[in-house]
Design goal:
Elements lengths: L1 H22 L14 E7 L18 H8 L2 E7 L5 H10 L3 H4 L26 H7 L3 E7 L23 E5 L16 H28 L6 H19 L5 H5 L2 E3 L2 E5 L3 H18 L5 E6 L20 H23 L6 E7 L8 E2 L2 E2 L17 H4 E7 L8 E8 L3 H8 L16 H5 L9 E6 L2 E9 L4 E10 L22 E11 L18 H17 L24 E2 L2 E2 L1 E2 H4 L2 H4 L5 H7 L2
Parallel strand pairs: 1-7, 1-8, 2-12, 3-4, 3-7
Antiparallel strand pairs: 2-11, 4-5, 5-6, 6-19, 8-11, 9-10, 13-14, 14-15, 15-16, 17-18
Helix pairs in contact: 6-7, 9-10
């Protein structure tokens, strides 16, 4: 009987202990992930890390982004895989360095230059949207895409968001450019005049020479060859001619799924329409799980800003645009809270790369501020072009008001959301991102990234080494752009810094910095000032060799041919080349497609 009584007491004590283990967690620990959360990813365009209040700005007002950081985790070393739009976003979507998918350039054209090009995110790449779609998520993209549209015809949509795992798309397939807003100086003139017009003249001269040779019998030439050259000449001439008013109609397009709804887009209402679509997506899919990628046009030039925010900031039009973007973040957060989804939604905010220092109008700066970090958009491996804001919020699962100073990457979003959705990342390719949940929840103290490789186009400019045992954060620059930090930071008289040629400096030995002591990259180290110089450079060079062994040749999506405008690939609403439509006004389907009255729609965006 005593043995039985002892056994009962032991069993009772064991049950009580197990219950306590389940319900009492040590301080600082957070709930494990036991269900699929909704996921809202918010990506700004060209936003500098120094433009946000929670990252040190005390003049531009960003209360909603600051609130997000107060309620979640702020990353101080969040790094973009490229300092310009197209490759950075390709890496974000795939978790892979853009060079692995062919989304980096060998020449100066480091982004997709037109809507009607054949380059774009390859169909064989698996985006995080596709993984989540396979796990039962409803997936949506609102805003900027800039990953291509068509391959062989004007409606094959091989690069379109709906081919890459998104169930719903509303936004611009290209990017925001000056031509999209009336009375702005043309942005594409340099490309069109210096490249296409030159090629047109060269080909025209060749056609004339061949035709004369054929007619005079001096050289044996077939009319087929003359015709082929003539067609190429017409193609380049059409590309050059597009500068005369057609760029706005061909590149400034709003689409809903595969349908063009505005051509050209009406920038005065773009902000309200995009915000309406984001809020509506949350409302429609509140029973989840859903993935919403809100890809802002803000704060890319030409800084389209509604009248409500014009002249409201202390930093001119750029500050106005940042504050409007912050307001838009607030409206998205309000929609999440209104539907009671705050505690079941992982919300993330970042920028695709650093602020654009060269953006200016006269002496007025139209680009962002990158805080203490050197350089900006397009400037190779300098911190200012690749270190961006990074904020996560998930109440009850992630700590509040926490700061992590470990190296992380925009590519980490890929394996992180795949893990949360219960999906598996592809096993047949290299995934460069790392699941951030252990770091965000505090179960590990150090980032899983030991090395990060900073490309400018296909050229490796710099490498970062996180030496965990010492806490040092080494960074070696093999190539740096020639730019002038004073003023607007202009690069070699160009609109954006080059990756190679006369506009860069090669360093042998590499420039070496310890970012843990010198985050501004102001004082390069040398063997005389750093005893570990040779051993650090040697270790980094070994890592570069290992990294290069993992690269395999792939088609160049940004090659001269793939990035050339092709009329047969141009999305067009109407009769080409006079593409025009406004289906937002032609019928009320857009306003009432979710059963809302006009007054209810206005309420969403005011």
């Amino acid at each position: 009987m005593q043995h039985l009584t002892g056994y009962c007491l032991f069993r009772t004590s064991l049950i009580i202990l197990l219950v306590l283990c389940l319900f009492l967690r040590p301080p600082g620990s957070h709930a494990s992930v036991s269900h699929k959360p909704n996921i809202v990813l918010i990506l700004a365009d060209d936003l500098g890390i120094g433009d946000v209040g929670c990252y040190g700005n005390d003049t531009i007002r960003t209360p909603n982004i600051d609130r997000l950081a107060k309620e979640g985790v702020k990353l101080t070393q969040h790094i973009a895989a490229a300092p310009v739009c197209t490759p950075s976003r390709a890496a974000f979507l795939t978790g892979r360095y853009p060079i692995r998918s062919g989304m980096d350039a060998t020449d100066d054209n480091r982004v997709l230059l037109w809507t009607g090009v054949s380059g774009g995110l390859p169909p064989n790449e698996t985006t995080f949207a596709k993984i989540l779609q396979q796990q039962g998520y409803i997936t949506g993209l609102i805003g900027k895409w800039h990953q291509g549209v068509n391959c062989e015809s004007c409606n094959d949509h091989c690069h379109h968001p709906l081919k890459h795992g998104f169930d719903y798309f509303y936004g611009i397939p290209f990017s925001l450019i000056n031509e999209c807003e009336k009375n702005q100086p043309p942005e594409k003139n340099r490309i069109l005049i210096t490249k296409y017009w030159l090629y047109t003249q060269i080909i025209g001269l060749a056609v004339l020479t061949l035709a004369i040779a054929k007619l005079t019998g001096l050289v044996s030439v077939t009319w087929k060859i003359v015709t082929c050259f003539s067609l190429f000449g017409l193609l380049f001439f059409a590309s050059w001619f597009s500068s005369y008013g057609f760029v706005r109609y061909w590149d400034c397009i709003m689409m809903r799924n595969h349908e063009i709804v505005e051509q050209p887009m009406i920038v005065e209402r773009t902000t309200s329409l995009m915000l309406r679509e984001a809020v509506s997506f949350i409302e429609r899919n509140k029973h989840g799980p859903f993935l919403l990628f809100v890809s802002f046009l803000h704060v890319h030039t030409p800084l389209i800003t509604t009248e409500m925010f014009l002249g409201k900031s202390r930093h001119g039009l750029y500050g106005d645009n940042v504050e409007e973007m912050d307001w838009m973040v607030g409206r998205v957060l309000d929609a999440i809270d209104k539907e009671g989804l705050k505690n079941t939604t992982l919300t993330y905010f970042a920028s695709d790369h650093g602020g654009f220092l060269e953006a200016q109008e006269g002496k007025v700066q139209l680009g962002g501020w990158n805080g203490i970090y050197k350089g900006g958009k397009g400037m190779g491996g300098w911190e200012g072009g690749i270190r961006v804001p990074g904020i996560f919020r998930w109440p009850g699962v992630l700590p509040a008001d926490a700061v992590i100073e470990e190296p992380t990457s925009l590519m980490d979003i890929y394996p992180t959301v795949a893990y949360l959705a219960g999906g598996i990342v592809p096993q047949d390719r290299v995934i460069d991102g790392r699941n951030l949940m252990p770091l965000l929840q505090g179960s590990i103290q150090h980032s899983e990234h030991e090395f990060m490789f900073h490309y400018c186009g296909v050229y490796l400019h710099a490498v970062r080494w996180h030496q965990k045992d010492s806490g040092a954060l080494w960074k070696a620059h093999y190539v740096t752009p020639i730019f002038h930090p004073e003023g607007a930071g202009a690069c070699y008289g160009r609109g954006i810094c080059p990756c190679f040629g006369e506009g860069v400096t090669h360093h042998d030995p590499p420039l070496l910095f310890d970012l843990s002591r010198d985050p501004s990259e102001a004082k390069p180290l040398s063997p005389a000032t750093e005893p570990l110089f040779d051993s650090v450079i040697s270790r980094i060079e070994s890592a570069v060799k290992e990294h290069r062994r993992t690269l395999t040749p792939v088609p160049e999506q940004l090659s001269a041919y793939n990035n050339m405008w092709k009329p047969w690939l141009q999305p067009c609403c109407g009769t080409f080349p006079f593409c025009w439509c406004d289906k937002e006004d032609d019928n009320d389907r857009a306003l009432f497609n979710h059963g809302k009255t006009r007054e209810e729609v206005k309420e969403l965006v005011t």
